Amino acid sequence: MTLNLFTWILSLLPILSVLILMLGFKWGGMRAGALSWAIAVVIAFTAYGATATMLAYAQIKAVLLALDVLTIVWGALLLLNIANEVGAIKRIGIEIPALSKDRGIQVLLVAWMLTTFLQVMGGFGVPVAIAAPILVTLGYTPLNSVVMAAIGHNWSVNFGVMAAAFNALIGVTGMPKETLASPSSILLAIPIIPGGLMIALIGGGWRGVKHLFPAVTIVGAVMAITQYLMAVNGLEMVATTGAVILGTITLLLVNRLPLYQQVSSPSPTKPEPTDPSAQSQPPDPVLKRSFLALVSPYIFVMVLGFVVVLVKPLNALLHTVRLSMFFPEIATKLGWVTPAGEGKAIHLFAHPSMLMFYSCLFAVLVYGRRGYFTRGAASRIISRTLHGAVDTSLGVIAMVSIATIMQHTGMTNILARGISESINRYIYPFFVPFIGVLGAFLTGSNNNSNVLFGVLHQEAARLMRLSAPWILAAQTTGGSIGSVMAPAKVMVGATTVGFAQKEGLILRRLIVYELVLVTLVAVITTIISAFIPSGAL
Question: Cβ contacts of residue 376 below 8 Å, gap of 6+?
Answer without folding.
Answer: none
